[in-house]
Each structure stands twice: as C-alpha cells, then as structure tokens.
C-alpha cells in the first residue's frame, strides 16, 4: 500500500458508517485512518499512546474532564496518552487519525462502538 497514492476525499466518500475508522495508509508503526463522526462517542483513554485528530470537514469537540477542545477544518489536536476523552460532533465530521497500529478506537472502554480496523479499496 505504501506505493499507492491515496486521496483523502475519495477515502472518506467510501465510508458509510460513523465511528468506524478505515486505514488509509501506514507509516512505520503508525496507521493513518479516515473516519466519519457524528453524535457522541464513549469516554475512554488510550493508556499507552497519544492520539492525533485532524479535522478535514465539520466541527468536532474533544471533551476532556477539565475542558472542551473545539476543532474546525484543518485543526489538529493531540490527546495525550492516558487522558480520558470523548469526541462529539453535532453534525457529521470528516477526520484523520494518526495512532500506532493496533490502537482500538474505544481504548480501554470497549463496548458497542469498538471497531475492527477496516481497509479502504
């Protein structure tokens, strides 16, 4: 896959479900994932890794226990490892995630929104 050019907009257009990340590509030990978000996710942490969110389209709130982080198109925010957070999107958001291979979207919370990583194309 590293030899192929990938288009972010085309990858996002292929996603039909919210909160189900798809691997766009990988670099070293990290996955670059595209995802559509809408509604409120689950409160969770990633005890062993940071998580980078980059908004492509829409407005995303990353709820933290002590504040809300508001993000718009082209904004980037890193949730430090071990920090409890809960993404929320009133309207549909298109985003990119950068995280180590094997990172589970619901972190330590598990539950119905836990996604098996899907491949695009």
TrEMBL record:
A Pfam family reported for this protein in Swiss-Prot or TrEMBL: Cupin_2
Domain Cupin type-2: 38-95
Protein name: Cupin domain-containing protein
Species of provenance: Agromyces agglutinans
